[in-house]
Amino acid sequence: MNLETAEQSLIFKCIAGSHAYGTNTPESDVDHRGVFAVPAADYICLNKKVEQVSDAKNDTTYYTIHRFLQLACFGNPNILELLWTPEDCVLIDDERWKQIHDIRQTFITKSVLDAFGGYAVAQIKRATGQNKLINNPISKEKPCKEDFCWIIPMCCKRDMPDDDYFCGRILELHHDYPFRPIKLSEHGINLDHYDCATVEHLPHAFRLYYRGKRAKGVFRGDDTADIVCESIPIVEEYESFSGILIYHKDAYERALRLWHQYWDWRKNRNEARWTPQEQDEVDVRFDRKNMMHCMRLLYSGENILEHGCPIVRFDGDRLQRLRDIRAGRIAYDDILQEAEERLAKLDEARKTCSLPTSPNFDAVNELSIRLHRCFHDHL
What we know:
This protein is an alpha+beta fold. It folds into three domains: about 1-105 and about 355-379, no CATH class; about 110-140 and about 270-355, no CATH class; about 145-250, no CATH class. It contains 15 helices and ten strands. The chain has helices at about 5, 20, 65-75, 75-80, 95-100, 110-135, 165-175, 185, 235-240, 250-270, 270-280, 290-305, 315-325, 330-350, 360-375; strands at about 10-15, 30-35, 50-55, 60-65, 90-95, 150-155, 180-185, 195-200, 205-210, 240-245. It has a five-stranded mixed β-sheet with strand order 3-4-2-1-5. A five-stranded antiparallel β-sheet has the order 7-6-10-9-8. It is elongated. The model is unreliable at about 155-165 and about 175 (pLDDT under 50).
């Protein structure tokens, strides 16, 4: 199942995201959401059933009727918003969708308030995570395994052209602190000329042997972070032994993950969103868009308490507030304080409000069965 196939069975499609909220800027992408029908038999066959399909950037996402109703029962804010989509954003709207639309109020329960508050907190966490990416740029140079290696060298008699220099360097480095680990980069040696073997009872430690052109190398290729060990003949050990190599593999792999995370973000991010923000002062260099969504969700949750439905299209003071957050005209600490106060009020109001505890599952199940039974009537 892919987007093209799902589009052939859409019962609903709309413009979602910032264009629906009224918070869009000239650089905003256009997001689409929709619901599509599949045969009821898909849910009893042995093949893995498809619940939703998306494009690579999730700008377009379609849900099966079954998945949509399931998420609506869970109070998922992104799903419930589709049931209150502004008319000017609706692109496809057939009679099957109207049946779902007619029972939309059954999904508004106390658990919805928890969901809206939880999603708001998640946006704060995302804003914090993006803040780390903004304020902690990582070099374009990929982490190197050798940078996570240390050596405890041993000065012994070996038939090496640079033996005098090598031993002299060791004595210099160990004049005050004998046999302390030294960064590999301080030695200037090439691990391609060495082989190694494990050290018994010492994880991350390896015996290092200089073997010149005969060496197979300690690291082999970029595909693995592991050191490759060799079996060194006993007769060669004394003459070729150079010291103990300590390799912090876990630290290298962690640095590599952070490097990929940062540069994947840089590659896929919307430059129009981030470049102006990175030119601002440090105290406003947070992910404004995530914090805007945090407040949007809290405003919407409050509207559920007051009027029984979420807000999708914003206007007036609330819209201006969201735009000010997005534009960086409000400091992060002020937004965070407001968010915390509104979260506390929302949580307190949930305990005393008159909303039902859960949706009318019987009504939702009945509708689901009816919609799936009539699938073939629309083929």
